């Protein structure tokens, strides 16, 4: 039996699965950035020529992004295993990150696909390869990462007074 305020067994398992999924997605996203920061060129076409040109002589600028992505990928999984419910500040940061990932990934996925389908016509030219990369790969990864993180946060929450009352009455 779990003590008051802690996540029940099934909730903790769901939370672990969701944070593990979020961690894997975040590490995959981070690994691509590590590869490019180290000079790799595979899938660079999915970023667009303007991004590639901007960072070609400043690859070191990618490393802070790697650190942020890795922290966002790994810290929630560690917190769920070590000290859930986590302190309020980390929870709020994880919720904020989840919302940003969902909104950023979701909007860019939808808009990118609408552009590719011809529903939205951007003024001037656009980089079709970059649009494909973002609409079909990078932004959906952000979206799924954010959803997995939100699922982890929801399943890890203590269930409230009603469940504690039921637990006490059956003890």
UniProtKB/TrEMBL annotation:
Keyword line: Membrane, Transmembrane, Transmembrane helix
From the record, give the transmembrane residue ranges.
Answer: 21-45, 60-80, 92-116, 136-156
Pfam families in the cross-refs? DUF3995
Q: Does the keyword NADP apply?
A: no
Report the InterPro entries cross-referenced here. Answer: DUF3995
* Domain of life according to the entry: Bacteria
Task: Tell me what this protein is called.
Answer: DUF3995 domain-containing protein
Organism of derivation = Kocuria tytonis
Q: What is the lineage of its organism?
A: Bacteria, Bacillati, Actinomycetota, Actinomycetes, Micrococcales
């Amino acid at each position: 039996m779990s003590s008051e305020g802690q996540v029940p067994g099934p909730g903790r398992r769901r939370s672990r699965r969701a944070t593990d999924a979020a961690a894997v997605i975040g590490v995959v996203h981070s690994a691509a950035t590590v590869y490019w920061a180290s000079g790799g060129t595979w899938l660079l076409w999915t970023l667009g020529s303007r991004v590639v040109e901007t960072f070609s002589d400043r690859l070191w600028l990618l490393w802070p992004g790697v650190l942020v992505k890795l922290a966002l990928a790994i810290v929630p999984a560690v917190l769920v295993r070590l000290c859930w419910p986590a302190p309020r500040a980390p929870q709020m940061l994880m919720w904020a990150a989840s919302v940003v990932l969902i909104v950023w990934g979701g909007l860019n996925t939808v808009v990118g696909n609408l552009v590719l389908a011809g529903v939205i016509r951007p003024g001037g030219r656009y980089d079709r390869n970059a649009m494909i990369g973002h609409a079909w790969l990078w932004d959906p990864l952000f979206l799924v990462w954010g959803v997995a993180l939100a699922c982890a946060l929801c399943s890890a929450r203590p269930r409230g007074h009603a469940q504690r009352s039921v637990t006490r009455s059956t003890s």
